[in-house]
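Appendix B. One record, verbatim.
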Amino acid sequence: MTAARSPEYQKATAMALLTSLHEQTSPAGPAVTIGDRTLTREDLLAAATAVADRVAGSRSAALDAVPDITTVIAVTGCLLAGVPVVPVPPDSGTTERRHILTDSGAELWLGTQHPDVRLPTVPVDAQARSATTYPEPDPATTALIIYTSGTTGAPKGVVLSRRAIAAGLDGLAEAWQWTPEDVLVHGLPLFHVHGLVLGVLGALRIGSPLVHTVRPNPARYARAAGTLYFGVPTVWSRICADPDSARALSGARLLVSGSAPLPVPVFESLTALTGIRPIERYGMTETQITISTRADGERRPGWVGLPLAGVRTRIRAESGDLCPHDGESLGRLEIQGDILFDRYLNNPEKTAEVTTSDGWFRTGDIAAIDAGGFHRIAGRESVDMIKSGGYRIGAGEVEHALLAHPLIREAAVIGVPDPDLGQRIVAYIVGDTSDEQSVIDFAAEHLSKHKRPREVHRIDALPRNAMGKVQKKLLHERHP
């Protein structure tokens, strides 16, 4: 799927995607630090060019996306050579890995030789050097093929162009006032948009040093002394549970949360401990980051802010009509802009399914927009829009209400079949209360009564994926 690209942006992205590596302002300074390994911009460019020499001309290259300096070198080398990168989760199972390698048509494996991978292996050496010069590829060239989590079937390969990635990163730089003076800190996986595109390519394009902590441990975040921190809600919740580490972040400029909704109590606790109201943003693999609160704007708990420059949004009711921007009406979120993916690899049917007749992308998420353009994400239409007793209820609203309970640390809400209501609301909670009725009554005090849970189940932990998103499919499976 190729959305219309603006002429202004086509002109702007004539520059290299990896701008800072070609326009080095301080080549001796650190560009990337992962764990205890550091590379300057000059060394990164030389080592990445050595990779480019090995992969040039390949159709695509699969990458063992371990949290290591070699992953950054390999991605950079492929981008220099114009070879699409296929990041493979290091913990992927045999079936998932085989599907990704087969579907992507990858011709090389970058990283350590793997017993299950029969492709030619290209080792990545941080000490290698090359001075070869490569022309900047056309902005329409594929940069990354990132595979979705596959919650509704086999993972789909999301094809992202160089132009789309540049558009998304430049939009974030403007919204967050992200500059080379920042030091970015995170410990997120390097095979998703959050950790790889924002967390690595963003730093390389903008020129801000990156400190990757290998794991998003509160103490490691505290020691990193950054100005810009990325985390998922689970990371921020754990940091808030370690007040000394949280207070150590008070010198930062921005704390950014994404990949899943940030619970309001975590937002408030992080603000109290650091003096910084966190930035929330919304995106997905197919769109990158499209909506965000701004460095110089309002940061409202439970809301993800305004569209980035060049991004348009709309919400559509089940009737097909556009929903009013009243902050309450829920509709299917659709997006258009330069940031969009090109297509699902080898899957024209699914690509057509998510594309409207006028070229907008159907996100599959439910949202509300207020009169000022602020967006609130209610969740996935497939699992988070509950139809109960004739009402349409967003699971996210119920979850936020439950999280205001002083004894509840985590909450997830699903709709299960009900012969009377159509669906009844069921809540799974992690916390220090087992009194089901008191939880139901608490929710009824904070919400319309038809939005209260009809069942509450206390569990030890919510099932989550690598990015901290609750896997509600597993909750449906365990429901009696």
